Amino acid sequence: MPDEQLALDNINFDIYDGEIVGIIGHTGSGKSTLLQHLNGLLRPHSGTICIGDTDITAPGVLMKDIRRRVGLVFQYPEYQLFEETVAKDVAFGPKNLGLSDEEVEDRVKEAIGLVGLDYEKIKDRSPFELSGGQKRRVAIAGVLAMKPQVLVLDEPTAGLDPGAHKEILAMIQEVHKAQNNIIIFVSHNMGDIADLSDKVMVMNDGKLMMVGTPEEVFGQKERLAEIGLSVPPVTELMHALKDAGVPVKENILNLKDAEAEIYQYLQRKILHD
Fold first, then answer.
1. Where are the domains of the chain?
2. Which of the residues 67, 123, 137, 166 has the least number of beta carbons within 10 Å of its own beta carbon?
């Protein structure tokens, strides 16, 4: 149809076992659309999507099997909580896999523990009585209880206060350490992307503009600015210092390295003065 527009155009990438991949792009760039293709919620008009050795776009592939392997956590997943207790909510997915009651309970305990909550203290509570950060953890636990090989998170810290934001990031790292799964997440927070990611993918107008390590991607400040994206705040600071004539490395992505670089500069300055 003449008014149709390609949501995703000629996107090619590989993600390897154990990687954490961050996806950035301004609103409408195709990030969420891409995520929904990864577990078959949306199907491409052309091209292929392979999860392991399975082409999920092939005829006859059961989407139920794919969704066991690829767990998708939507933005604000706590809005999808619905059971009367936390344990029942987390158990919903595993029960639908036809597992025994014992296996379901084991998975629920493990998933609740993985997201940093105390199973005994929280299992019988209503999810609606919890804080925003706790609700989000319970919603993520419901996906983890399915034991996906790939965990996909759409803006996992959106709308949380700074404390809960930090806790969710730490939880993602703990889950990854415990399961060594592939984690793919979208965020507008460039600091989070830099801190968590092994690989960064940059989307713009439905196209994949850049793929690389955080250092490679955020080292291209001008190119990112052309498509309306920024670098992490600490990197902005280092660029500002360099522009003001302070001889420091500008492509630094975290506070620890920035502190070390500024400290070394001050030491040199004291010695020379």
1. 20-219, 232-273
2. 166
Bridge partners of residue 200, in order along the sequence = 22, 212
Provide mean pLDDT across the span 57-74.
87
State the burial class of residue 89 (Cβ atoms within 10 Å of its Cβ: 0-12, 13-18, 19+).
buried
pLDDT bracket for residue 1 (50, 70, 90) = very low
- CA torsion sign for 217, 17, 143, 6 is positive
Sign (positive or negative) of CA dihedral 224, 219, 72, 12: positive
**Contact at 8 Å (CB) between 13 and 208?**
yes
Tell me the whole-structure pTM to 2 decimals: 0.90
Residues contacting residue 113 through CB under 8 Å, at least 6 positions apart: 119
Give the pair of three-digit tokens for residue 95.
Answer: 């029960």
List, as one string, the DSSP characters of the chain. -TT---SS-S------TT-EEEEE--TTSSHHHHHHHTTTSS--SSS--EETTEETTSTT--HHHHHHHEEEE-SSGGGG--SSSHHHHHHHHHHHTT--HHHHHHHHHHHHHHTT--HHHHTTS-GGGS-HHHHHHHHHHHHHTT--SEEEEESTTTT--HHHHHHHHHHHHHHHHHH--EEEEE-S-HHHHHHH-SEEEEEETTEEEEEE-HHHHHT-HHHHHHTT----HHHHHHHHHHHTT----S---SHHHHHHHHHHHHHHHHHH-
Residue 4 has pLDDT above 60, yes or no: no
Spatial separation of the C-alpha atoms in residues 187 and 31, rounded to whole Å: 9
Q: How far apart are CA 65 and CA 244, in angstroms?
A: 56
CA proximity to 174, closest of 243, 114, 105: 114
Retrieve residue 238's tokens.
Answer: 């280092």
20-219: in CATH 3.40.50.300: yes
